[in-house]
Structures are given as structure tokens and as C-alpha cells.
Specification:
Beta-carbonic Anhydrase, Chain A; two-stranded parallel sheet; globular; 2 domains; alpha/beta
């Protein structure tokens, strides 16, 4: 083997080794994990009595609005629910009570970026009130210290559509009768008044929220008095399934 051939062979091996080393370095650099400072902290804290006492209805509402913005953008708080469950076991001090539809597409805590122990949630198809839900709200506010009552209707609500269509089926018939007043309130709508018209369904849903708030004030002297004194705020909202946004109603 002459010297020229040996030199060429050595150069070839050197090139291969350098290429392999560079490849290895590149692979390692691509596998580097995100720096710890970029990771979101995991929250395990739960609401205390002292914290609940310091809150105002307006501050809670603002917190809900900001939480919903995080929900929309996909930047909700990272929580350790197991620790929160254990910490909240001895007692609860929620800041609000939310009356929502039973619809599985409406994740109440997530919509407002709230954790365990932060809110009471009452759910019934069509988010109406009856004696049981009024009693639950009175417990939440008068006994447990919640300062915001939020009634939330939502887009594409099946219960609203059922009330519009006058569905008759078992106990659903009696349930939908609680929503019929909102259908009657919506006859001023300019357009097709059918469950196939999404705009009409939304109009009825919004009127149903407003009617529910009116019923809360009329049928719960306790909550009405608390509202009049500024101890609580009663608010209505419409939730859009398609983009997670909220529309506050007056």
C-alpha cells in the first residue's frame, strides 16, 4: 500500500468520524428539554376563608373574565387536582355559584379557569331555577360566603330547542315547561322562530337567562336582599361553544 493511498484512506475515515460526531451533536441539541423557567408553575393552593372574605363581587367577576381569556387562548392554569382535593377536604370557601346547563360541552370550571374549591356549580338542562336550585344558591351565598351568582346559557342548547319545538316526552315535558316563558318572551324576534334557526335559539337562550335571573330575585328574598346590600352580584352570560367566548347580558 503506497503512501498516497494510505493518506487518502485516513482522510476518508476522518471525514466519516467528523460527520458522525456532528450528527450526534445535532441530535442531542434537538432533544434538549424546555428550560425550567419556561414551565408554568403547578398550583395546589385552595381558597381560604380569609381570602374569600377579602374578595368583592366585582373582583370575582373580573377574575372570571380574565380566566375565560386564558381558556380561549389555551393558557389556563396548571393545577394539581389531587393535592387540591386533599387540601379542600376539611372545608370549602368558594367565591361564586354558577348555574349552568347540564350540557357536556360546557365545562364550567375550565371556562372560567377555576380550580377545586373555587366555585359551586348547579346544573340542569336549560339552566332554569326551581326550589332546589334556589335553596342551593342560598346555601352557597348566605351560608358559605359566595359573592357572585352567575347564570350561564349557551349556544346550541338542546333544552332550548326542545322548548321551542314543544317536545313531549316523559319528565322532559315538565322540565321544558320551565323554559316556555323564555320562548313566549322571544316572539318579537324578526325571522324564523324555529329550532333550526340558530339566531332564534340564541335569542331564546338569552331571554331564558334573563328570565331565570328575574325568578331568582322574585323567589329568593334572601338573595335579593344580599344583592340590594351589595353583598353579592347576580349576572347573566351567554357562552359560545364554537370559540369559548362569553357575552354578558343585561
Amino acid at each position: 500500500m503506497n503512501n498516497h493511498f494510505k493518506l487518502a484512506l485516513m482522510l476518508s475515515f476522518s471525514t466519516i468520524l467528523i460527520s458522525c460526531n456532528n450528527g450526534t451533536k445535532t441530535e442531542k441539541s434537538n432533544s434538549i428539554s424546555t428550560p425550567t423557567e419556561d414551565l408554568k408553575p403547578v398550583v395546589s393552593h385552595v381558597m381560604t376563608k380569609e381570602e374569600q372574605t377579602r374578595l368583592t363581587p366585582d373582583a370575582i367577576l373580573e377574575e372570571f373574565i380574565e380566566g375565560n381569556k386564558r381558556f380561549q387562548s389555551g393558557t389556563t392554569t396548571v393545577r394539581d387536582h389531587s393535592k387540591q382535593a386533599r387540601k379542600s377536604a376539611p372545608g370549602q370557601f368558594p367565591k361564586a355559584v354558577v348555574l349552568s346547563c347540564v350540557d357536556s360541552r360546557v365545562p364550567v370550571e375550565d371556562v372560567f379557569d377555576q380550580g377545586l374549591g373555587d366555585i359551586f356549580v348547579g346544573r340542569v338542562a336549560g339552566n332554569f331555577v326551581n326550589e332546589d336550585l334556589l335553596g342551593s344558591m342560598e346555601f352557597a351565598c348566605k351560608v358559605s360566603g359566595a359573592k357572585l351568582v352567575l347564570v350561564m346559557g349557551h349556544q346550541h342548547c338542546g333544552a332550548i330547542k326542545g322548548a321551542i319545538d314543544d317536545v313531549k316526552l316523559g319528565n322532559i315535558t315538565a322540565m321544558l315547561s320551565k323554559i316556555k316563558p323564555a320562548v313566549a318572551m322571544s316572539q318579537d324576534f324578526k325571522g324564523k322562530k324555529t329550532s333550526k334557526n340558530d339566531e332564534f335559539v340564541k335569542h331564546v337562550s338569552e331571554n331564558n337567562v334573563l328570565y331565570t335571573i328575574d325568578q331568582i330575585r322574585k323567589k329568593s328574598p334572601i338573595l335579593k336582599e344580599m344583592e340590594d346590600k351589595g353583598e353579592i352580584k347576580i349576572v347573566g352570560v351567554f357562552y359560545n361553544l364554537t370559540d369559548g367566548t362569553l357575552e354578558f347580558l343585561k
